Amino acid sequence: MKIDIATSNGMYGFETSFNDGLNFVASEDNTRGKSSIIAAIYYCLGFEEIIGGKGEKVLTSVYKSSIEDGENIYPVLESGAYLEISNGLETITVYRSAKMENRKYQLVTVFYSGIDRKGNSDVLKEDMYVHMQNSAVNKKGFHSFLESFLHIQLPLVPSTDDKTRKLYLQLIFAAMFIEQKHGWADILSGMPVLGIRESKKRVLEFIVNLDTLENEKRKDYLRARESSIRSEWSSIIKEIIVLTNRESCTTHGLPIHPKVLTDEDFLAISIKKEDIRLNEYVDTLRDRYNQLSVLKPKIVDNFDEIQKELNATELSIEEFERDIYKCRSLLHSENTSIEKITNNLEMIEADIRNNKDAARLRDLGSEISLMTSEDICPVCHQSIQDTLIPNSADMDFMSVDENIRHLTAQKEMLEFAKNSYFKNSSTLKVRIEHLESGLFTLRSLAKSLRNDLYSINENISETVIHKRLQLDSEITSLDRLNQFFTDQQSRLLGLSNDWKIMLEEKEKLPKKKLTELDEKKIKSLRNNFVNNLTNFGYKSVFNLNTVEISLDSYLPVIEGFDMKFDSSASDNIRAIWAFVIALLQTSNNISGNHPGLLIFDEPAQHSIMINDVEKFFNSIIEMNNSQVIVGITIKDIETREAVQRLPATKYKLINIPNKAFRKFSDSE
User: Fold this and answer.
1) 395 contacts 387 by C-beta, under 8 angstroms
2) Closest to 162 measured CA to CA, from 226, 87, 69
3) Strand-strand pairing, 21-27 and 651-656
4) Secondary structure of residue 662 in the 3-state scheme
5) According to the model, what pLDDT value does residue 155 have?
6) Measured between alpha carbons, how far is 229 from 227 in angstroms, rounded to an integer?
7) Residue 295 in 3-state DSSP?
8) What are the strands of the beta sheet with 270-273, ordered from one edge?
9) Mean pLDDT, the chain, as a whole number?
């Protein structure tokens, strides 16, 4: 790593390299710049959300404002950091500016070489972006590049907006980078909120490489597919019903909910008008239209027939008007009933609230031994009834709890009745609409008949023309409905096949939540965690055999409860050590997805005993395939001796004697 800070007094900064295994970034005071150095690692990787924000604002003032050199303070003109990383085969250097006039914090430059060669003319470099839309998926997105470079295949997981997104790298590394301010509050407490549902659970599934992650993804996909089919099916059914009602038709055999349609089911789906299948009804209309087409549209000696038809039409008009009046009266009655029930429901809900409040107060009173809680008057010591009706020896009164049950039952009954009235109201509205449409047609026909009666013999018959126009319009509308219905049947058949496939896929899902291999992995994580707790001197739980890994969250619990509730402050820190290290140990044992990098900034929180801290360091040394960076303050002899007792070849000490950022010489 190299940090460059340009000031009015020249270039300042910090440069170091990290070994495999354990690395200490150490100083004798807590204000020498250790956290500033570690923060630069987060920042270069675009993981500063773990610290608590985006961009340079998460960095200390030494990157943005001023730098101290002895008694002098120099303003910062520009600053940035280079981080060299390797995937085992290739090495790249990542540069990100912290303060630069013409460069925004979202810009990341990748040099395809180590830090020492980044300035060579033959080194390829590429600009990318971070913390912008699609930076985790697009080719020029830095996190998309970093995922590929690290040979990580991030899964798609459910997000809080009911979509699926990649499991962000920031979330993965939040389980490995424990920063000083927020990281020691609880296990994985530094994980940023990035819109991933159950993000901690998804991260742990990925690190330990559980098969259940794929199963959960499949379940989520099938749930979304089921919801989509239901929604589309419901939409089709509603469209069919609306259009058939508009044409005064009725549907038969129409499945309201998705199902696997058999040939028999499919053939049973039909539209009828006046109890005749739509196709047959349209054929009768065409026959009538053809008969009218044969007639000459002239007035002849048929006044009696016209008069009879006019009389019959006027009778039909009267019947329609009576039916409309009757339906409107019923609709008014239904609406009145709905209004009354709504008012009654409001009163009942108020009564339920009042009775529940009374029950709460009674229960609260019983805890503090008030006489009113026992339904006894505190003044006269007589029994208090839960009613204002005068007491009677022959009358039983309901208690508050009985009142609540009774009122709740009444509410359910009234809500059922209200829904029934709403359905009746909707049916009546459709009926009135149909009747008014029919009445309009009959009145138009009656008008044509009257005009024919008073026309001369050679005039064109308005009635014949009117009937032909009416039949032509109805045939056109019904043909359109029939074609629409045929198209929707095809859509329903397609959805039925999709529904069948979805049901078959659901049946293939494993019945158990975890596979046998997953259970072994969880058991391995639990054993590593408990062994670490024992090693680190965890004392808050007498019997560590009661510690388990929750199958719901994959976090440690005791008898179903979060371990933190039973842990002292120092033991909570030990639990964080134990779990973070157990994740790496388990991943190494079972070929998990852990990248093998850990960062602990000031792990010796809450004055933990130095012996336990030393055991923590030794457990890191014992791990293979890892690189661990520990920011530590060595201000007492015990801590210094604990570090010195470690095998000298097993760790690297990066000592910061005064201030981390010193002035570079011209050669640097």
Assistant:
1) no
2) 226
3) parallel
4) strand
5) 87
6) 6
7) coil
8) 250-252, 270-273, 276-277
9) 84
Three-state SS letters, 11-33: EEEEECCCCCEEEEEEECCCCCC
What is the token pair recorded at 290? 């053809």
Across the range 105-130, mean pLDDT stands at 93
Q: Which amino acid is at 455?
A: S
Rounded distance, CA 473 to CA 476, Å? 5
Four-point Cα dihedral 125, 130, 134, 137, nearest 10: 50
DSSP 334-390: HHHHHHHHHHHHHHHHHHHHHHHHHHHHHHHHHHTT-GGGGTB-TTT--B--SSSSP
Measured between alpha carbons, how far is residue 191 from residues 2, 133, 170 in Å?
26, 20, 8
Map tokens 């989520």 to a residue.
Answer: 220
Distance CA 640, CA 558 (A): 35
Global pTM reads: 0.65
Strand, coil or helix: 230 = helix
Each residue's pLDDT tens digit, 411-468: 899 889 888 888 888 888 877 887 777 777 777 767 766 666 555 555 555 566 666 6
Give the pair of three-digit tokens for residue 657. Answer: 């004697």
Instruction: Yes or no: say if 617 and 642 are a contact pair by the CB < 8 Å rule.
Output: yes
* pLDDT tens readout for residues 230-263: 999 999 988 888 888 877 788 888 898 999 988 8
């308005």: which residue's tokens? 462
CB 6 within 8 A of CB 98: no
pLDDT tens-digit series, residues 576-628? 999 999 999 999 998 899 999 999 998 887 678 889 999 999 999 998 889 99
Reference 41, options 105, 92, 84; nearest CA is: 84
Kindly state the tokens that stand for 288: 């009538």
Give 145-196 pLDDT, tens digit per residue.
Answer: 999 999 998 888 888 887 788 899 999 999 999 988 888 888 998 888 888 9
8 Å CB contact between 56 and 42: no
